[in-house]
Amino acid sequence: MRTAAVLPIKSFAHAKQRLAEAVGDADRRELAEAMVGDVLEALVAVPLVSAVIVVTAEPLAARAAEQAGAVIVDDPHEAGQSSAAARGIAAAADRGADRVLLLPGDCPALDADELGALLAGEADEPPAVVVVPDRHGSGTNALLLAPPGAMAPSFGPGSLARHAALGRAAGARVHVREIASLGLDVDTPGDMATLQAALADRPDAAAARTRAVLDRLLPAPAW
Known about the structure:
The structure is a single chain. By secondary structure, this protein is of the alpha/beta class. It has a single domain (about 5-215), classed as Spore Coat Polysaccharide Biosynthesis Protein SpsA, Chain A, CATH 3.90.550. Helix content is about 40%, strand content about 20%. The chain contains 7 helices and 7 strands; from the N terminus they run E-H-E-H-E-H-E-H-E-E-H-E-H-H. It has a 7-stranded mixed sheet, with helices on both faces. Helix 1 links the parallel strand 1 and strand 2 (about 50-55). Helix 1 (about 25-45) packs parallel to helix 2 (about 60-65). The longest helix has 19 residues, at about 25-45.
């Protein structure tokens, strides 16, 4: 089964606005760029991911995608994550993907083995939808659709329940699967500290780019 991973990436100048009170513009751009690089590195290490598609208008993200061997789809209007995801889904379908995995660019702790296990374990006949929640249990940090057009994504607050309802309405089997490393997205200063602590506990050198930026921006951990 050919799986395409789709990564919608907002322009770094507009990314992570909820961090603005604690993190300056240049540092937010650097953090966004670091996280995207680490997510791409993890994705290309997953054997069951046949193709990576990056949907973006950000030149630095496009450059990182090109270096990772990903397909680049322009997002000229930047109308939001759901709109960008739809562009990526269309590109995946055009390239013959049997299913599509939608991921954010701000989950740099992504563990390739955990993601590979998820993809290997989901063998339902299509249509099928798998929703991976954020660590708060209300948002969506990954969405696996088989076939790619099984349903239209609808990201944003409360998207976990919304995606489950949309999948069922479309006649798909719906599963909710938790992946610890995908629960660590970054929207608030508190999320940054949580991610820093989680990465420090990892025995590997995952997310080296993001670690370096967080270690520069945050006070030294007390552990």
